[in-house]
Amino acid sequence: MEFCKGKTVKSLERIGDSDKTGTKVRFLADSTIFETLDYEYEVLEKRFREMAFLTKGLKITIEDLREKEDENGEKEGIKKAEFCFEGGLNSFVEYLNKNKEKIHPMPIYIEKDGEVPIEVAIQYTTAYSENIYSFVNNINTIEGGTHLEGFKRAVTKVFNEYARSRGILKDKDINLQGEDIREGMTAVISVKVKEPQFEGQTKTKLGNSVVTGIVANAVSEALTTFLEENPNVAKAILDKCISASRAREAARKAREIERKKNSMEGSTLPRKTCRL
Fold first, then answer.
1. 10 beta partners
2. What is the pLDDT of residues 81-107, one digit of tens each?
3. Cβ-contact 127, 100 below 8 angstroms
4. Is 87 in a helix, a strand, or coil?
């Protein structure tokens, strides 16, 4: 079957028998539509790897047969890569954390079917930044959206409730902030939405309000069960969260002292000069 400019130019035809299954697509960009026809191998390789992570068991092969020359005028070899990850999002998180020190060896995995199928993988490292990727129908929502909002809300709620129920947070202690709990977190959130509504100019932020509650409930239930069944992992993660909270509070107090100091210095009256 063949298409051109959005129209069918050759109908589907049988060309023979085969003992294989699958679909092969050959695509030639139209110079009257696309601004550039020169594809970057590295960009496609990254995207195909991402797609293989998001669909566990899917095998994707990319091969660059173009003849190119390097800076020295020598021909470059054929570039080829093959991706297939049976671990899905768990493999994705492990790939992202491959050069980091992990707090717990195996990612926390959450999967739930329903109106909005949800898949989440979480792993904590000793790093000080959070690293969260969110996807809708395998599209990278770099601006987040309602699915990411539901995830963050659930994580903050569950860890605070667990910490209080185990006496890790006392009555006099304030709740941990979301940023404290997400410090060192690497996570991938993937949802499937039948009719996604995207916001913003780039269409990379999910706007379906119903998704927030669905994701929050699913993550809350699964994460609560995981923490109760894995108290050692829960304690290790909460130790890091509490450490992050104390560091943030100490930094806040230091800034306040510095501001007060500068304010007092700025309000000092100039000395009077007496001339005889």
1. 2
2. 999 999 999 999 999 999 999 999 999
3. yes
4. coil
Residue pLDDT, tens place only, 56-76: 999 999 999 887 777 777 777
> With left for phi above 0 and alpha for psi between -120 and 50, is residue 223 left, alpha or beta?
alpha
Q: Taking a C-beta distance cutoff of 8 angstroms, is the pair 124, 226 a contact?
A: no
- Cα 185 to Cα 199: distance, rounded to the nearest angstrom: 26
Q: Is 119 exposed, middle or buried (0-12, 13-18, 19+ CB in 10 A)?
A: buried
Cα 144 to Cα 183: distance, rounded to the nearest angstrom: 18
d(CA 257, CA 107): 40
Contacts of 39 (CB under 8 A, 6+ apart): none
| pTM of the shown model | 0.83
d(CA 258, CA 276) in angstroms, rounded, equals 40
